[in-house]
Amino acid sequence: MRILLTGGCGFIGSAVIRHLVRTTDHSVLNVDCMTYAASEETVEDASSSGRYAFARTNIVDSSEMSCLFEAFRPHAVMHLAAESHVDRSIDGPGVFIQTNVVGTYSLLEAARKYWLSLDKADRAAFRFHHISTDEVFGALGPHDPPFTETTPYDPRSPYSASKASSDHLVRAWYHTYGLPTFVTNTTNNYGIWHFPEKLIPLITINAIEGKDLPVYGDGANVRDWLFVEDHAEALVKAVEKGVPGETYAIGARQPRSNLEVVRTICKVLDELAPDAHGPRERLIRFVTDRPGHDFRYEIDPSHAEQALGWKARHDFETGIRRTVQWYLDNRSWWEGIRARRYTGNRMGTAAE
């Protein structure tokens, strides 16, 4: 297949590109406008492949999107481009509405125009795969069953509201226009190349440097953690097998409280790179909780596992060890972000 993939220089998008180039015969056009969280280094391994191409442009630009569809002639779209940082959405929701809502609308319309130009067989085979989050479902209590594909939407932050809006648009274009779309919702991802403002890389980097490890509230908030390479494998299986109109909830069955996550990182790092000043748990600091902080997210991935023939390969302890080791081995990447390219003020917060 020829796959037009948006947001391919981001954390999850780049993992998908690396997986596509390494394990399939598909070709991919990476469409990315290169915001603060994007890095071309994440796709360096793929860039030497004749099956990889890059277009630096914004999905909000509908005319440019139409040109890319006509030139590349994709068999499928994988739409990952999004603003995704909850704290940033609280401080400045406008860019989230523009990228996540208006950008998705622009891409849907370009895809629909292109799809209508195809012959009957190609039109039937075309797929528009929209990648979303479990945050659109709201928050779970301590004893609530995990989210599934039929959980009602109840977004609580500007970020999750913007993603919920984009999910609704994607489904509306299926029901109204017949565009063969489907949606995947996933839980928190972690792994290599994760931008340093997110919880796991932030804690890992601070712990490496002996800095405070900030944890919101009492650290009891729970997330189901999915290793990004496992997610990439699931997304590729979805674009190959996904049924129009369907939803697939992708998770790892690995729930951990934020405090458990931080303590696990400390333990692994103490083993891999002991600190002369003692165990790194001494650096944990509890900070004021953020507004509207959802208590728990967790996904039941049973339907996706069965329909896609996929299951997460990594448990949390295995995945976090690989992740921590990668940050130890790749200081130049994250040090470069802080020294040269990072222009926000989020480094040092306790964000997920």
UniProtKB/TrEMBL annotation:
Q: Which domain of life is it from?
A: Bacteria
Which CDD domains is this protein grouped with?
Answer: dTDP_GD_SDR_e (cd05246)
**Needs which cofactor?**
NAD(+)
Which keywords, in A-to-Z order, does the entry hold?
Lyase, NAD
Catalytic activity reads: dTDP-alpha-D-glucose = dTDP-4-dehydro-6-deoxy-alpha-D-glucose + H2O
Q: Where is the NAD(P)-binding domain?
A: 4-323
Tell me the Gene Ontology biological-process terms attached to this UniProt entry.
Answer: nucleotide-sugar metabolic process
Q: Which GO terms describe its molecular function?
A: dTDP-glucose 4,6-dehydratase activity
| InterPro entries xrefs | dTDP_Gluc_deHydtase (IPR005888), NAD(P)-bd_dom (IPR016040), NAD(P)-bd_dom_sf (IPR036291)
What Pfam families is this protein classified in? GDP_Man_Dehyd (PF16363)
KW NAD (keyword) present: yes
Q: Hydrolase as a keyword?
A: no
Look up the EC number in the record and give it: 4.2.1.46
Q: NCBIfam families from the xrefs?
A: dTDP_gluc_dehyt (TIGR01181)
Which PANTHER family did the record assign? Answer: DTDP-D-GLUCOSE 4,6-DEHYDRATASE-RELATED
The record's comment on protein family reads:
Belongs to the NAD(P)-dependent epimerase/dehydratase family. dTDP-glucose dehydratase subfamily.
* Protein name according to UniProt: dTDP-glucose 4,6-dehydratase
- Recorded source organism is Acetobacter garciniae
